[in-house]
C-alpha cells in the first residue's frame, strides 16, 4: 500500500473543503487497494457539525449494498479523527487509520479521550493500528 499516494487524494479533498470555507480535512476508505469512499469536511457548508470528512467517507461506504462492517478497509485522513469520528470508526471496525496530522485536544487518539486507543469497550474489539505523520507537512500547510 502506498500511503503517500492515498494521502495525496485526501489532500485534494481537503483543498476542496478549504476552498468552500470548511476546515481543510479530506478522508478516504480503501479496500483491496481501491478507493471505495471519499469524505470532504462540510460542517459549515451543511450547517451540521456531523459532516466531518471521516464520517462522510464512512456514510458513503456503508451506503454500498451489504457494507456495514468496514473491517477490511483502511482509512486515510489528513487530520487525526476527532472524538466523534473516533466513535464512528470504532463502531464500524476500521482496523487501520493513516493520519497526516495530529489534532491534540479534540483528537480521537492524542486527546484526554483517546477512543481510537480504548480497550475498555469490549464490543469494539481491538483498537485500530494508527500510522501517524504521512505527508504531515503538506497536511499542516493546508492551514496557511
From TrEMBL:
The keyword Zinc applies. Transmembrane segments: none annotated. Residues 1-113 form the CMP/dCMP-type deaminase domain. This is Nucleoside deaminase. It comes from Chitinophaga filiformis. The keyword Metal-binding applies. Pfam families: dCMP_cyt_deam_1. It comes from the Bacteria. Keywords: Metal-binding, Zinc. Signal peptide: none annotated.
